[in-house]
């Protein structure tokens, strides 16, 4: 009986600390017109007791259907307005977004929300079809997926203290083809107008 009680306490202890950090797209799925634009938030949630001081993420998409237009960084890594180090690189089909906070860990721990928008991606519809959106792990990233908490090392610089492991979400953007009925009605209208101009 005592053994079961100890196992139960250990199990509860592990479940309390096994909170999942999630990076996701919002909205997860959306539809836009040809030539129209789509904005998608890249959101982190479930930080709990952890803080996020930086990230280096690669977002994959189908560049025959979508064109990357811009990435606007959120404010979750800049709680006191000191600024951040940022970079955005478009490799055609893959966009790399990087941000590193200048705030102190204690300030982030006290004021960073558990759930916030890392940034907003904007795409333009180039062709009909469906483009998946995926967060890719990069072999060249600053730290594997997310840079975790940093510590000051003897006032000489910053070292990576830990890495946050995250569950990576996916999404899609659809550029739908015009419906068959709309095409048929357009054709009939065009024939009618053409016939009217011939008779006149």
The residue ranges in which pLDDT falls below 50 over 5 or more consecutive positions are 1-18, 139-161
Strand content: 35-45%
Structural class: alpha+beta
CATH architecture: Sandwich
Number of domains: 1
Overall pLDDT: 77
CATH class: Mainly Beta
Keywords:
200 residues, alpha+beta, Immunoglobulin-like, 15 strands, 22% helix, elongated, disordered N terminus
Give the helix/strand layout.
Elements: H1 2-17, E1 21-26, E2 29-31, E3 37-45, E4 54-60, E5 66-73, E6 84-90, E7 94-101, H2 105-111, E8 116-125, E9 129-136, E10 146-147, E11 150-153, E12 157-160, E13 163-164, E14 166-168, E15 170-175, H3 180-199
Parallel strand pairs: 1-14, 2-15
Antiparallel strand pairs: 1-3, 3-8, 4-7, 4-9, 4-10, 5-8, 6-7, 9-15, 10-13, 11-12
Short description:
22% of the residues lie in helices and 44% in strands.
């Amino acid at each position: 009986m005592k053994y079961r009680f100890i196992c139960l306490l250990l199990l509860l202890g592990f479940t309390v600390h096994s909170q999942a950090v999630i990076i996701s797209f919002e909205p997860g799925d959306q539809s836009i017109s040809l030539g129209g634009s789509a904005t998608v938030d890249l959101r982190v949630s479930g930080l709990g007791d952890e803080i996020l001081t930086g990230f280096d993420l690669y977002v994959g998409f189908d560049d025959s259907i979508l064109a990357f237009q811009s990435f606007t960084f959120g404010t979750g890594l800049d709680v006191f307005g000191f600024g951040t180090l940022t970079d955005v690189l478009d490799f055609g089909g893959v966009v790399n977004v990087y941000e590193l906070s200048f705030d102190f860990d204690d300030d982030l721990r006290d004021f960073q929300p558990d759930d916030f928008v890392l940034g907003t991606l904007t795409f333009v519809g180039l062709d009909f079809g469906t483009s998946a959106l995926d967060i890719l792990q990069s072999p060249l990233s600053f730290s594997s997926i997310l840079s975790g908490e940093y510590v000051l090392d003897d006032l000489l610089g910053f070292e990576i203290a830990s890495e946050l492991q995250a569950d990576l979400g996916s999404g899609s953007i659809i550029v739908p083809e015009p419906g068959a009925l709309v095409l048929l009605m357009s054709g009939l209208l065009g024939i009618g107008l053409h016939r009217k101009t011939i008779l006149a």
